[in-house]
Design goal:
Layout: E1 10-14, H1 18-27, E2 33-38, E3 52-54, H2 60-68, E4 72-75, H3 82-90, E5 94-95, H4 99-105, H5 108-117, E6 125-128, H6 131-139, E7 147-151, E8 161-164, E9 178-182, E10 186-196, E11 202-204, E12 208-213, E13 218-224, H7 230-247, E14 251-260, E15 265-271, H8 281-284, H9 289-297, E16 311-317, E17 324-325, E18 327-329, H10 331-334, E19 340-344, E20 349-350, E21 355-362, H11 366-379, E22 381-383
Parallel strand pairs: 1-2, 1-4, 2-3, 4-5
Antiparallel strand pairs: 6-9, 7-8, 7-9, 10-11, 10-12, 10-14, 12-13, 13-16, 14-15, 16-21, 17-20, 18-22, 19-21
Helix pairs in contact: 1-9, 2-3, 3-4
Length: 384
C-alpha cells in the first residue's frame, strides 16, 4: 500500500445520519476523502463532511451515478438500492458490505433462512404472505401464542415489529409479507460487534448487554462488558464470528442475540454496518467500531478491541408526547457528571422515541457508571 493511499481514494457512504456522521468523524484524523449521499443536504453528517450529495440512496440511478465517482462504497443504513450496487461491483467498484450479503439482510425472512441453512442458532420461524395468512395459520394451529411478527422489509428502530401475546392483540398484526417467530423466553438481550477484514480475519468487541423500551421496542441503554459468564461470552463471540464469516462480510457486523433461560445463545437479527450497540466503543475501547469499519473496508489491519474502561451507553430519545424543535431540558446539569461523553446527532426536530443522541459514561466500575447513567436518564428530557 502506498503512502499516498488515503489521499487518492474516495470513500462513498450511503446515508448521512448519525452513523454516517460518526464514520466521517473517525475518518477525519486520517484525512480520508469521504462523500455522503443523503436525501437531506442538512443531514447530521453534513456538519463534519464537506462532500454531501443530495439524493435518494434507494433510487437506482442516483446510487449508480454517485458510486461511479467513488473508489470504495459503504453504508450506514441497510435500505439502499442493491441493484445499483451490484452493477457497480460488476464494473470493479469495491462495495462493503457486498450487495449479495446486503440483499439477504434487507429481508428478515431471507435472514432467518440463511441462519438455518448455515447452522447458525436462531429461534423457530415461519414466513407468511400477509396478515390474513397469519390468522389462517393461527386458526389451523400452525402458529401458537405468544409470537413475534416482523415485517420482512423496511423495519427499523422498533418499527415493523409486533408482539402478539393473545388473541386480544390480533388488531396489532402488521400488513404485508412477514416473519413469524416464536416468542423467546430470554434472560438477556445481548450484542456482539464483529469485524472482518479483506483477508477474512475476524475480531470481536466484548459482548454488551442491552436494555429495551417495551413501548418503542428499541434500545434505551447498554452495559459493557455484559454481566454474563466467560463461557456465555465465548459462545456469543463464536456465534458472531461464524455469522460474519458465513455472510463473507468485509467491515462491521452487529449480531443481536438472545440468551434464553437454558443459557442457549440465539441470533435475533444482524446489521452490516456500525450499530447502536457499539456506540460506547468510541470512548471505552482502544479502537472504535467506526475506525474498525474504516480499517476493514480500506484494507488496513484491524485494530485492538480491548476495553479501556467499563461503560454504560444510554440513548437520548425524544420524550413521549412531544414533536417539534428539540429542546434538551436539563442537559447543563447532566454535563456536570464526570465521565459522561455526550453525542448530539443534530436532528432539529424531535418526536416520541426518536434517537436524538447518546451518552456514554465511562468509569472504573460498571456499578458507578450505571448510577451516573440513571441520573442522566432521570434529569435529561428532550422536549419541544
Amino acid at each position: 500500500m502506498s503512502s499516498t493511499y488515503f489521499y487518492n481514494k474516495k470513500l462513498g457512504i450511503l446515508g448521512g445520519g448519525q452513523l454516517g456522521k460518526m464514520l466521517c468523524i473517525a475518518a477525519a484524523p486520517w484525512h480520508l476523502n469521504t462523500f455522503i449521499l443523503d436525501p437531506d443536504e442538512n443531514c447530521p453528517a453534513s456538519l463534519v463532511c464537506k462532500n454531501v450529495r443530495k439524493g435518494s440512496f434507494t433510487d437506482y440511478e442516483t446510487v449508480y451515478q454517485f458510486g461511479k465517482q467513488m473508489d470504495i462504497i459503504t453504508i450506514e443504513i441497510e435500505k439502499v438500492n442493491v441493484d445499483a450496487l451490484i452493477k457497480l461491483q460488476q464494473e470493479g467498484k469495491k462495495i462493503y458490505p457486498s450487495p449479495e450479503a446486503l440483499q439477504i439482510i434487507q429481508d428478515k425472512g431471507l435472514q432467518k433462512q440463511f441462519y438455518k441453512k448455515n447452522n447458525l442458532k436462531t429461534s423457530g420461524f415461519e414466513l407468511h404472505d400477509d396478515k390474513q395468512d397469519v390468522i389462517d395459520a393461527l386458526n389451523k394451529g400452525i402458529i401458537k401464542y405468544p409470537f413475534v411478527q416482523k415485517s420482512r422489509k423496511d423495519g427499523y428502530d422498533g418499527k415493523g415489529v409486533s408482539v402478539i401475546n393473545t388473541a386480544n392483540d390480533l388488531d396489532l398484526l402488521l400488513e404485508g409479507p412477514c416473519l413469524i417467530e416464536e416468542k423467546i423466553n430470554f434472560k438477556k438481550e445481548l450484542s456482539v460487534i464483529a469485524a472482518r477484514d479483506i483477508h477474512g480475519d475476524v475480531k470481536c468487541f466484548d459482548i454488551v448487554e442491552m436494555v429495551f423500551d417495551e413501548r418503542a421496542n428499541l434500545v434505551t441503554s447498554l452495559l459493557c462488558p455484559a454481566k454474563v459468564s466467560d463461557a456465555i461470552a465465548k459462545k456469543a463471540e463464536q456465534l458472531a464470528t461464524d455469522t460474519i464469516k458465513a455472510f463473507g462480510i468485509t467491515g462491521i457486523l452487529a449480531v443481536e442475540l438472545f440468551l434464553d433461560t437454558n443459557d442457549n445463545i440465539l441470533i435475533n437479527e444482524v446489521a452490516p454496518r456500525p450499530h447502536n450497540s457499539g456506540h460506547h466503543t468510541i470512548e471505552a475501547c482502544v479502537t472504535s467500531q467506526y475506525e474498525q469499519h474504516l480499517r476493514a473496508v480500506l484494507g488496513l489491519p484491524l485494530g485492538s478491541t480491548e476495553i479501556t474502561m467499563p461503560s454504560v451507553m444510554i440513548n437520548l430519545l425524544g420524550a413521549a408526547g412531544y414533536s417539534g424543535n428539540a429542546i434538551y431540558e436539563g442537559i447543563d446539569k447532566c454535563m456536570e457528571v464526570e465521565g459522561a461523553k455526550f453525542h448530539i446527532y443534530g436532528k432539529a426536530q424531535t418526536k416520541p422515541f426518536r434517537k436524538m443522541g447518546h451518552v456514554t459514561i465511562i468509569d472504573k466500575s460498571a456499578e458507578s457508571a450505571m448510577k451516573k447513567a440513571e441520573f442522566i436518564q432521570k434529569n435529561l428530557k428532550i422536549i419541544a
